[in-house]
Specification:
3 domains; 397 residues; four-stranded parallel β-sheet; binds iron/sulfur cluster; 21 helices; 8 strands; Rossmann fold
Length: 397
Amino acid sequence: MSDKAPSTGRETEAANSTPGDPQLCALCPKLCRFACPIAAGTADEGATPTAMMDSYHQARAGQIPWEVAAENLAKCTGCEACRAPCEYDQDVPKLLYMARAEAWEKGAIHDGSRALHETYLAHGNPFEMDPREILLEQARDGDFQRKGRVLYWPGCRVLAEEPATVGATMDLLRSLGADHVSLPGRDDTPVCCGAPLRVIGDRTGFEATAAGLKQFFNRQRTWVTPSSACLGAVRTGYPEAGVLVNAEVLHVSEFLLFFRDRLAELGKQAMETMEQQDRPIPTLYVHDSCGLHRRLGRGDPVHDVVEAVTGQRPVRLAPSADESTCCGAGDFHDLRRPEAAREVARWSQRHSSVSKEAWLITGDTTCVGALKRATPTPQVHDLVGFLVRWLGFLDAP
Ligand code: SF4
Ligand code: SF4
């Protein structure tokens, strides 16, 4: 794209290449204890950064088996809620990636991570699905352009959990004027960027995946995704693995803002249709995902897109974006530790003001399933899922 992407000016994960010192956490009087959704939501003292890094140090010193440390090191959603109360600006998720990679090299792997890895090896993604089959079913020939200038990377979670939105998303993008957008090739390209491998500590697997995808990604000028997991992996994980992607890497909200006027036009038409049909206009809430807001500093464009299409600023679910609570699914925690993830989701939404009639929008496809299970409204959508339904490209569920 020739225009510069809107920036929130908080590129925390990208800018901070030094994650900190695990020793500081191990010796800390748990300043972040009450910010951590896992420690609070599951009442597990082993989930604090202090406990996790302490077990890491003990394993390195040979005082406990690496298997014991690996169990503890898995207890994190990567939400970065611990960063605000921290006096040392520790990047706990990145410290844990490093610690898990070391445990992995010793052959110590948390059970849930091992199960995820086995699924990944069998299917090429962490879900038990065939992505190519889904792309064949849900998209049309014209959605795959070998020379498209923009690659729309839905992420494997969308293909597994919201497959019906894929074709509708391409219709939406075309109606905005973005007719140069392509889905990943369905014949020859993996549709998982390797993000789960980075999280669980399979450094070699992640590096091989990144190296394998580099050439394909560099064919396009712009790479767009609705997933903070994919965005974080390609934006920060690939460079850390020595893989440089030249394409401009954007969250879908940033890309959509290039079409702000057309969004407003389509939004106005949708509102007129709703009024003609006497349909009530629901209150719209936006959930600020930890992955997008805290880790990547890219949360505000989500609000801007919703405002562009509805004419109104949506209601923020948390008092402020920084106070947003984790849904429990970040860093594939819902796949690695499903029961703990459900408890975290219930805990994080315990004071939610969202009614059954309201719509809840999250900028991150990671969070949709967890929020659906924890909030009373059935209308929980990621940003693109919201747009395709609000604008009539797909019936609301
Ligand atoms: S993240 Fe900061 S506050 Fe939390 S344990 Fe580590 S050093 Fe202490
Ligand atoms: S990143 Fe989130 S889940 Fe992980 S230790 Fe920090 S607050 Fe807890």
